[in-house]
Description:
By secondary structure, the protein is α+β, with helices and mostly antiparallel strands. It folds into 2 domains: 5-77, CATH 2.40.50.140; 82-236, de novo design (two linked rop proteins) (Up-down Bundle). The chain is 39% helix and 25% strand.
Amino acid sequence: MQDMQRAFVLHTRPYRETSLIVDLFCEDIGRLSVVVKGGRGRKGSAALFQPFQEIWVAYGGHSELKTLLQVEPGELKVSLSGLALYSGFYLNELVLKLLPVQGGVSGLFSHYISSLSTLASGQQIEPSLREFELALLDELGLGIDFGFESTSGSPVVSHGTYRVGLNSGVQRVDSIEDTGVDGATMLAIAQRAWQDSNVLQAAKKICRNLINELLDGRVLQSRKVMQQFIEVQRQSK
């Protein structure tokens, strides 16, 4: 049997009469889907295949959909609630929909664990989400250097105005449009100055636009649910 690999569950769904398909985020291979034969009838299986808790897996098979051979519980279990819980589901859906199958990962897995730990603390939720979104773009080879214009390589200047696109990168524009950002804010994003709420809001808008380009019309259900939760919380105050 192959070596066990550390993983987190992204999503589970029924498969045939008694089995499960489990989508995993693995430390070495990245995103992977496995069949858990008889998983819906096994005692203890449901407890193992829960999100935000570490498991160790071994799998086999030659097709893209692997067969789970062994699973063991890990040590890390992250308890999330409220907005942090919906944020965790958002991270999972980003990985599930944007990371290629068995594409390997470099630092994204450690970013994922760090993000879960930050979410569990109940603090710095928005900065944690921005950090993960930017790390995911880096992993996909689409990282943005907010300190320089992408075409000319010229440094971003604080008095300039810029637009950020998935393929175009950072481009200077003549005036602030709906997607335009002033240079001072761009430089602050480059420095990850999340303590400034205006910088954080601008980064959120930029990341959302970039991710929407990647999704190409697909909808993130977790984003919709998170927005609904925030609205309910706002109305209850």
